[in-house]
Design brief:
4 helices, rod-shaped, membrane
């Protein structure tokens, strides 16, 4: 299952970089091309949502089927393995949340940048009419 988490991490990283590049001021020349690329990538990146839901169900299943290690019923090594498993599940849940939030931010920022460009074009047309 490690490959799925690597793929999700790369997708979240790519989303974060695109959001960062779209929101950095002063990149107006690069922004037009970046908006076109981002708009074309939004549909393929939508596959992150069901993928995250699948991985979230995987975390839940592992949580439900994990042997409990409470009190003196397990050895220190089993207790350590149990704690590591809990930490990995929490880390993976944070990665899922980050990927979903970055996708939502990327969608929202791209939509706003496109709307701003359209409004700027309308202003230019109105200025040219006068």
């Amino acid at each position: 299952m490690a490959l799925e988490w690597v793929v999700l991490g790369y997708a979240a990283g790519a989303e974060a970089i695109m959001v960062l590049l779209l929101t950095i001021p002063g990149l107006d020349g690069l922004r037009r091309g970046l908006v076109a690329v981002t708009r074309n990538l939004l549909k393929p990146f939508l596959s992150v949502v069901p993928f995250c839901l699948f991985l979230l169900m995987d975390i839940y299943w592992k949580y439900e089927t994990r042997p409990s290690c409470e009190g003196d019923s397990c050895t220190p090594s089993e207790h350590l393995r149990h704690q590591k498993s809990i930490m990995k599940s929490q880390r993976n849940a944070l990665l899922i949340a980050a990927a979903l939030v970055f996708y939502w931010l990327l969608y929202s920022v791209t939509h706003l940048v496109v709307k701003i460009e359209q409004l700027n074009q309308r202003i230019e047309r109105l200025k040219n009419k006068d």
